[in-house]
Write a structure and sequence with these properties.
182 residues; mainly alpha; two-stranded antiparallel ribbon; elongated
């Protein structure tokens, strides 16, 4: 067999192998199943942003969401501020980004006792609310999902929430502040 014939045979074999490889890749991709589907979104951001539509309005309009300290948190605003930025436990600024109605969590709706709710990191409360909202926006009754493999993707971090918690809430601090509980 001359070099030309050997080359033709080699390319024929490679073509067959390439076709088999492509078929196998197609089989593997078909077996992989469905990808991730985003079916709903829940939002809670500063500046009264509590829907995806309002979030888009803020982004598209370039709106500033910085505002004054909220008056519904039980904070002593008169003694909170100082001109000394090094003062511990005080604020040298009078403005920030705060969520509206952060204290309006309905613990009973989620089957959570008032004591447990007091010990919960606000991230956990917001996660419950926004997850529920995302499902409702998708037209899904959240209670219908019990026992099914359903997930919510979350970005969260540890916080020092709960330091100095009241005695009646201490028993809930571990699960109320652990990001793993999210």
């Amino acid at each position: 067999m001359d070099d030309k014939s050997r080359s033709v045979e080699y390319f024929k074999r490679m073509t067959v192998e390439l076709r088999r490889a492509r078929e196998r890749v197609a089989e593997l991709e078909a077996e992989r199943g469905e990808g991730i589907a985003i079916v709903g979104i829940g939002v809670r951001l500063p500046g009264g942003v509590d829907t995806p539509e309002r979030f888009w309005d803020v982004l598209a309009g370039g709106h500033d969401v910085v505002g004054g300290f909220p008056t519904d948190r039980g904070w002593d605003l008169d003694s909170l501020f100082t001109d000394d930025p090094a003062a511990a436990g005080r604020s040298a600024t009078r403005r920030g980004c705060f969520l509206d109605d952060a204290g309006a969590f309905d613990a009973g709706f989620f089957g959570i006792s008032p004591r447990e709710a007091l010990a919960m990191d606000p991230q956990q409360r917001l996660l419950l609310e926004t997850s529920w909202e995302a499902l409702e926006r998708a037209g899904i009754d959240p209670t219908s999902l019990r026992g099914n493999d359903v997930g919510v993707f979350v970005g969260a971090s540890t916080q020092s929430y709960g330091i100095g918690a009241q005695a009646e809430s201490e028993g809930f601090l571990l699960t109320g502040t652990a990001p793993a509980a999210l």
